[in-house]
Amino acid sequence: MPPDDTPEDLPADEGALSLRWSGRVSLTPRILFVNIFALALMAGGFFYLDSYRARIVDGRVAQAEREVRLIAEALSLLPPDDRTDEMVNFARKSGLRLRIYDRRGRLAADSRALGVRNFQLLDPDKDGWQQDAARALDAGIDTVVGNERDPLYRERAPGRGLRWPDVVTVRTTGGTAATVWRAPDRTPVVTAAAPLPEDRVLMATVNARDITQTVRSERFRLSLVLGVAVLLSVLLSLFLARTIVRPMRMLARAAIRVRLGRAREVVVPRLPSRRDEIGMLARALSDMTSTLRSRIDATEAFAADVTHELKNPLASLRSAVDGLGAVQDPDLRAQLLAIVQDDVHRLDRLITDISDASRLDAQLARAKFEAVDLGALIAALVGYRCDRGIGRGITLTFDHDEPLVVHGEGARLERVFANLIDNAVSFSPPGGTVRIAGTNDGDLVEIEVIDEGPGVPPEQREAVFRRFHSVRPGDEAFGRHSGLGLAIARTIVEGHGGMIAAESRRDHREGARFVVQLPVAGA
């Protein structure tokens, strides 16, 4: 399992996960925004089509210039009387409206007047709403990309040829010229002019509606694709938000109810079918709530047990104190004072053990573990007990392998084995032997404390580790133990990642065997 985060790690993690403005927005709109933002980039294809249209128009302008120059050169090779008929043929084949202007700008010949009606502007007022919408979209895109609007195409009177800028440019420079105009229906109109002999000018005109139709068709297809993509993105975003936001809201409501003190009424959903992070969070919250309930139950039970355990010596102490005021016999008063003194010592032991038991979890959480040699620790503890004298002829032995090094807090572990040794000595018969053995299998250090007493019945082997559970030898004075020794030992051992249990002796002889297992340091 990965190690728990230390308090020093938390600020860095919090900073890494912190959000500024986006943390104030619900997950659903944030998911929608991220997905639609990607589609908005796809919408840039509309503007790419505008540049595509501009390149096509530039190509059409160059084509018109080449065509009008070639036609002008071909007409220049013909006699003046044959030019009109040949101009009509060129107009039919090229799709251009061809006009010839003389040096004064007067119209000398017009393919349309000669029967070739291949140039005709559409009236936008007679189009349907689809064309109106297309033109509005064109105008909007032009506005967004900042395109300059081409000048509106308007016909000139037959004698006003010099009002065409292409005609003026040709007469001035002697080369070709071309201009792009805007028809009333927003389609491009291209005019091009080239010089003819006798100081005349040939001008060609074409309405390039095919360019607009091609661009609008591509925009329509792109709009369909984009619309379907937006719809699917919104639906998938809502589905994703539902699968994330809904369970998180359920978990948040459950956590709020737990915070309000309704932990016993709340069923935190575990979401067993989900194997993602949401499922992990749900199960972690459910387990945390169960642990919290257990802690609350244990705290309530501990408070009730403390009250019960304190009432007995207090009641005895109150009776003795009340009797001191009424008894005049010195011997009886001495007995009552002895009872008072014994009850005071009993209360002192009880309060000390209760204080240690109540603070033990928090102290272990803050403790700094280090390598502890259990062999040396238990050997010193056994030597001290033997030097002090055990009493009743009881023998205390310690056999162990080397090394017995674990990771923990030495003072707490010493208390574990001191409690186990005290417990074994108190239950041992006169002249009995309490044997302590230590082994190391490479992963675990196992310590056994074996006595020759009556043993622990199988149905009591778990109950002896409960707080205030005290079954003492019959010849022991009442109140000498608080019933917290084994409970404290289990708390310390489990706080070190180990295990403690009461078992029967392996040799099937009478007596109890307490086993403590702790991880080897560095295992």
Write the SSE topology.
Elements: H1 9-17, H2 27-42, H3 45-76, H4 80-94, E1 97-101, E2 107-110, H5 129-145, H6 165-173, E3 177-182, E4 188-196, E5 200-207, H7 209-259, H8 277-326, H9 330-366, E6 370-373, H10 374-388, E7 395-400, E8 405-408, H11 410-427, E9 433-440, E10 444-450, H12 485-495, E11 499-504, E12 512-519
Parallel strand pairs: 7-9
Antiparallel strand pairs: 1-2, 1-5, 3-4, 4-5, 6-8, 9-10, 10-12, 11-12
Helix pairs in contact: 2-7, 3-4, 3-7, 7-8, 8-9, 9-12, 10-11, 11-12
InterPro entries: HAMP_dom, HATPase_C_sf, HATPase_dom, His_kinase_dom, HisK_dim/P_dom, HisK_dim/P_sf, Sensor_TM1, Sig_transdc_His_kin-like_C
Transmembrane segments: 31-49, 222-241
Domain HAMP: 242-297
